[in-house]
Amino acid sequence: MSSLFEIRGLRSAIEGKEILKGLDLKIGGGQVHAIMGPNGTGKSTLASSIMGHPKYEVTDGEVLLEGEDVLEMGVDERALNGLFLAMQYPSEITGVTNADFLRSAINARRGEGNEISLIKFVRLMEGKMKELEMNPEFMHRYLNEGFSGGEKKRNEILQMMMLDPKLVILDEIDSGLDIDALKIVAAGVNAMRSEERSFLIITHYQRLLNYIKPDFVHVMMQGRIVKSGGPELAERLEAEGYDWVKEELGIVDETVGQA
Ligand SMILES: Nc1ncnc2c1ncn2[C@@H]1O[C@H](COP(=O)(O)OP(=O)(O)OP(=O)(O)O)[C@@H](O)[C@H]1O
Ligand SMILES: [Mg+2]
């Protein structure tokens, strides 16, 4: 089977400091991959580099979505081609309502002359918000402004559901969610699982993976993936922490190091 998404030897730097140091990852269609790893090992940098965040300079490697060169695409183009990131820290945008934002994003993807009608859009958004048990008022609130931590996370999942992406990256979607919200968000993700869509889930806690069963679990240290396994790897990390991985691989400092 050819992979839906593939990263080869990715190197990425910020302000001249290299964070990703030759990262390889292959994700097949329909698969869920989880990335775990200690703080400051480059997980969010990976997400931002894939999405084309302008602060991160990719210096080497390849990123392919269905065989297409992602690194050649502009930021907008990446989203249009089906990459989606639910951010660890979503930004607040005053003056743009949640509905405005999502409608423009959907229409950008559908293209000129094929815009979604207002009625259809509202019905779609209301339906998804209901699934996520969100208060209807969030439709007309400014994007993330004054949202609680958990409300922001739920709203990221709303965006994912509305935009119908091919590769979904969730960066610590479980942080800040209460137990009921975690179940609702996981149900939203599980409802989106299909052969045509893949997931990359960054998390610190095995608990999320009880609700969203991953096919593969990877450990990130020093800006690359150093160990991969199945769901049992996450269970062992939860129980024992990371010291055994470091010992096994002879790693002393797991962070990306100083400049
Ligand atoms: N804009 C930036 N300026 C300076 N350093 C940065 C910047 N972004 C990332 N870094 C550094 O890169 C390293 C990796 O950061 P990153 O956010 O990718 O880690 P992470 O694995 O997501 O950690 P966490 O689990 O805490 O979210 C850190 O040392 C961080 O300080
Ligand atoms: Mg992070």
TrEMBL record:
It comes from Cohnella fermenti. PROSITE patterns: ABC_TRANSPORTER_1, ABC_TRANSPORTER_2. Belongs to the ABC transporter superfamily. Ycf16 family. This is Fe-S cluster assembly ATPase SufC. CDD domains: ABC_FeS_Assembly. Keywords: ATP-binding, Nucleotide-binding. Gene3D superfamilies: P-loop containing nucleotide triphosphate hydrolases. Pfam families: ABC_tran (PF00005). Residues 5-247 form the ABC transporter domain. NCBIfam families: sufC. The gene is sufC. PANTHER family: ABC TRANSPORTER I FAMILY MEMBER 6, CHLOROPLASTIC. GO terms for molecular function: ATP binding; ATP hydrolysis activity.
